[in-house]
Amino acid sequence: MRTYRPYWDLTRISTQDPALGPFAVWLSWAQLITWGSVFYTFSLVMGPVERELGFSRAEASLGFSLALLADGLMAYPIGRLIDRGHERSVMTWGSVWVGACLFAHSFIDSLAGFYGVWLALGIGMSATLYAPVFAIVTRRFPNDFRRAIIIMTFLGGLASTVFIPLSSWLIQSLGWRHALWVLALFQWLICWPLHAWLLRGAKEKRSVNPDAENAIQAPSSAELHPPQGTSDSIKVHLKSAPFWLLAGFMLMTALVSSALPAHMVSLLEEANLSPAWVIAIPASIGAIQVLGRFLLFVFEKHLDVHAANKWIPCLVPLGLLFLVAGGLAPWAALLFVTFYGLGNGLNTIVKGTAMAQYVSREHVGQLNGVLGVPLALGRAVAPWSLGLMWSPEVGYTHGLRWLLVAGILGVVCLWWAQISAYKLGANRR
Q1: Which CATH number describes the domain made up of 20-428?
Q2: What CA–CA distances, in Å, run from 244 to 56, 249, 349, 368, 392?
Q3: Is the pLDDT of residue 234 over 60?
Q4: In the chain, what are the domain boundaries?
């Protein structure tokens, strides 16, 4: 009689042939901690740092921008290292580095030190967040990578839900400097050992089913095929229309998803919400993200993946539309958080799989890495620009309008990429 072993059972993880479920579940714990302790904690630390060190809103926002810039600039070399089988070293030492940077952050006393530590954190983010783990699961599970990514983002999506209230409590109880010590310990005591254990036995090249390389798993997607190519044909993919249209989609969505988290707490404070709601609402984004991913996980095999990819990115602009039209009224803020949470959570799946679905699975690490510089520049400019556009008279109104335009342009680029992939597939038949 076969014994049932749940997803979290570590005995199901072997060096040579790891089971998809437990591998993704355990890897997601490190994602939860790193996203929470670095990405989502910034908006909570920004206020105390501004008050203690005398920074302006634009000056503080630039720190997060520099982190995103460094994250993007390191994307290509990190992608190459992972494609060559160095995933364990990348993510293990990345966790050590992030912990060291959080610890160093607690000692800053100048604007230069603040910028320096966030530049360093950006390097650590490039080695520990979704981009590297998406490349890893795509290589390890080439025929079921989409499902692996969905599973892995369940816990990762709860980062804001767990860490916004946790970090807020730590800052109130210990002060922001000592709170960072606790977050550093999370990296050293949990993330470091998890990456060292899970990522054993990486191979330089995982075999991919030839049919799987060129087919998109969806009930009605047989007519869509990414460009074919051999192992040394990355230049062909870089010249294709779907690649550059996906680049536009990722850039536009990156502007929105990187600008808002750094200012989320301040934005909701301007919506005249109580302090409890200011913490509770952004924290709930994580739960909403996971709800969306769970529904996608359950119904994935019954959905046309391309139809899902087409409509999911519309949720974020819709949320921004409510916020702009409602003039930051409490009801508008609530609708914004609902649609933004669903859209942002599901967009992670779309962005994590689109390159493999519409361009190439074999070179997904490098292809995403090529976009590192333009995405880094866009992500770096976004939080800083939103801070610059803020003023006591109009608040975030002008900045939110520009983000709405960017969200709409991103949707258009993705739709166009799908059409281009279809045409390329038709021409090859």
Answers
A1: 1.20.1250.20
A2: 37, 9, 19, 11, 39
A3: yes
A4: 20-428
